[in-house]
Write a structure and sequence with these properties.
By secondary structure, this protein is an alpha/beta fold. The structure holds D-glutamic acid. D-glutamic acid binds next to helix 3. The site of D-glutamic acid (DGL) has 16 residues, from helix 3.
């Protein structure tokens, strides 16, 4: 791998911006190529085979574009495709996000916990192994069908309505919320409007640290200009505009996981 290559980051849409912004806080000198697969969004309801194929196409694109490492900034794609991508492309490091359920075990084991994720993630073998290993026996699982899509559309009223319907019964029941989809850190405020104050768990800061370590260990760190390129599979200008707007907002905030 070429150390001056870019880091490829992808998601089914712009949600992975929540991962990229954490990465850029600690790796500001790397150059990035972000791929938003809005043509095939949402991934949450697709079959394993469909997701593997879509991810494979994106990886081939990243390799053509000289990417030196690939971040799967989508929990659903990580759960369903990371293993087979690593097998097929052993020479490129893959860094995959997963719901931060182990952090609950490490930092807030005794508290009732809600895991919010796509149906695909909640039912995946990978997530169920994680759950079994770190089960705090006070955990509710919630498949948020259609939520990532609403966040992708950006209609706050629709999002609030959805959250009211799906989350109200957990008010006063849960203290921890695992954001098991990379779109969900974008609606923390709206989640707290329904649940009251909760402790959020997001895997992105740890993923960023892990990526840094992988680049260091493989002598792949570079001293570039921190350029971010954006591609969308539907070439939607509106997506691009919102992506950079959110990226700028998050870059300027020091918001991190509340401990
Ligand atoms: N952002 C994605 C995730 O982390 C997927 C959302 C979707 O396309 O369903 O799971």
């Amino acid at each position: 791998m070429n150390k001056s290559g870019k880091i490829g980051v992808f998601d089914s849409g712009i949600g992975g911006v929540t991962v990229l912004s954490e990465i850029m806080k600690i790796l500001p000198k790397e150059n990035y190529l972000y791929y938003s697969d809005s043509k095939n969004n949402p991934y949450g309801d697709k079959t394993d085979e469909e997701i593997k194929q879509l991810c494979d196409n994106i990886v081939q694109y990243f390799i053509e574009k000289d990417c030196k490492a690939i971040v799967i900034a989508c929990n659903t794609a990580s759960a369903k495709a990371a293993q087979c991508l690593r097998k097929k492309y052993p020479n490129i490091p893959f860094i995959a996000i997963e719901p931060a359920y182990k952090m609950v075990y490490d930092y807030a084991y005794s508290k009732p916990t809600l895991v919010m994720a796509t149906k695909g993630t909640i039912h995946s073998e990978k997530f169920n192994l994680l759950l079994k290993k770190y089960d705090n026996h006070k955990t509710y699982l919630l498949s948020c069908v259609g939520l990532a899509d609403k966040i992708e559309q950006g209609n706050k009223e629709e999002i609030r309505k959805y959250l009211k319907e799906t989350l109200s019964s957990y008010k006063n029941e849960v203290e921890n919320v695992v954001l098991g989809c990379t779109h969900y850190p974008l609606i923390q405020e709206e989640i707290e409007e329904i649940l009251g104050q909760v402790q959020f768990f997001n895997g992105a800061p740890n993923l960023a640290q892990y990526l840094k370590k992988i680049l260091q260990d493989n002598n792949l760190l570079t001293n570039g200009q921190g350029i971010v390129e954006f591609e969308d599979s539907q070439e939607l200008e509106e997506k691009k505009r919102r992506f950079f707007e959110i990226l700028r907002e998050r870059e300027n905030s020091n918001e991190n996981i509340k401990k």
